[in-house]
Amino acid sequence: MYSVPKGTKDVLPSESYKWHYIEDAVRRAADLFSLKEIRTPTFEHTELFLRGVGGTTDIVNKEMYTFEDKSGRSITLKPEGTAGVARSVLENSLHAGALPLKMYYVTPVFRYERPQAGRFREHHQFGVEIYGADTAECDAEILLIAKTFFEILGLKNPVVRINSLGCADCRPKYNAALTAYYAAREGEICGDCRERLKKNPLRLLDCKNPECKKLTPPKITDNLCGCCETRFLKLQELLRALDVRFETDTGIVRGLDYYTGLVFEFVNEKIGAQSAVCGGGRYNGLAEALGGSKISAAGFGIGLERLLITLEGEGLIPAAADKKPQVYTAPVGGKNLEKAMRITNDLRRGGVSAETDILGRSLKAQMKYADKIGSEFVVVIGDDEAANDKYILKNMRNGETLETNLKGLYEFFL
């Protein structure tokens, strides 16, 4: 017998309603903000993620599912959604239309990492992307979309933590300050961080090693240029005016190289160490890094498995709707099976939930089955009923029976 691969999970029929509930909330939030859905392939050319996500990230270095196809091309299961959307925007010239371009997606993503609460090797993301609006107002709207989505689900606790990573003008100055700080303490940092120091100093801030986290490196907000500082302060003013609860956190850098300017995380400490339920920011240089024209972009991703844990922990997932068939047609004898299926199909086409026998069971067994699945009515179709156009309709709630012809049967339900 086979079992699911480590880090994956079946969504069973008894649980799928929870996913429908979250996905319905996704679409409600998307409609409120006029977001259009985009769907990109499950796998892309590996080069897309090397250039887009960044060769110094843990995702690219340690976590991607990469393989060669039968033609020798390097293919990767997408580890996140943003790079694929950027590729699609450029390839299909979506940015040439009306701006801002506002999109969302719900997609599986794949990362080879240690499975833990709310994190699987195959998990699912709700993501939002806005192209063509490089303003503090757009940054605020991105945060509002996430906040609204959480409110639709009834989730009140997440607080957004924000930071600014600066622009191409102030980032080099900050990188130099980081390099100097960590170089003087190289013996105190882990081996991964010593490598990050050589390749991308900003990644040092994202290290989860307890010893590395004890250090107090210089803050990016103390090294912002005038424009970036003004914009970050403007965003905070907007968030206060919009009643978005936030904190500034200079330790947030996110785990991807494409971020510039705003980065943020919505966190809920009730789910433990992995408390972030949403993360995102601005990535104005991503399209250009992929070989396209320069176009501003911002967005976020929400891990749905982790979100589901949060919702269940706070009792916010409603009970499953008890969906039962309205009528069960019970054929007696093999020659009445076709008639029963035809009547059942007519009822379904009329919008009635209906079931019939597909196992060749006796009438007694069928009545037990109809009762077990909670059917409200049973129609008995025997030789006499079929020949005389007289059918027995039984109410399974109170045991009452009614004799009717086929026309009356359809009129009763339709």
Question: Secondary-structure blueprint of this entry?
Answer:
Layout: H1 16-32, E1 36-37, E2 43-45, H2 46-52, H3 58-63, E3 65-68, E4 74-77, H4 82-91, E5 101-110, E6 122-131, H5 136-152, E7 159-164, H6 171-183, H7 191-199, H8 210-213, H9 226-241, E8 246-248, E9 262-267, E10 276-282, H10 286-289, E11 297-303, H11 304-313, E12 327-331, H12 337-349, E13 354-356, H13 363-372, E14 377-381, H14 383-388, E15 391-395, E16 401-404, H15 406-413
Parallel strand pairs: 1-5, 7-8, 12-13, 12-14
Antiparallel strand pairs: 2-4, 3-4, 5-6, 6-11, 7-9, 9-10, 10-11, 14-15, 15-16
Helix pairs in contact: 1-5, 5-9
- Number of separate structural domains: 2
Computed CA radius of gyration, to the nearest angstrom: 28 Å
Please report the number of helical segments.
15
- Low confidence ranges: none
In whole angstroms, how far apart are the ends? Answer: 46 Å
Would you give the CATH topology of the largest domain?
BirA Bifunctional Protein, domain 2
The percentage helix is 25-40%
Name the beta content range: 15-25%
Query: How many strands?
Result: 16
Instruction: Name the CATH architecture of the largest domain.
Output: 2-Layer Sandwich
Quaternary organization: single chain
Sheet with most strands: strand arrangement: 1-5-6-11-10-9-7-8
- CATH-defined superfamily of the largest domain: Bira Bifunctional Protein, Domain 2
Whole-number mean pLDDT: 91
Main sheet characteristics = 8 strands, mixed
Structural class: alpha+beta
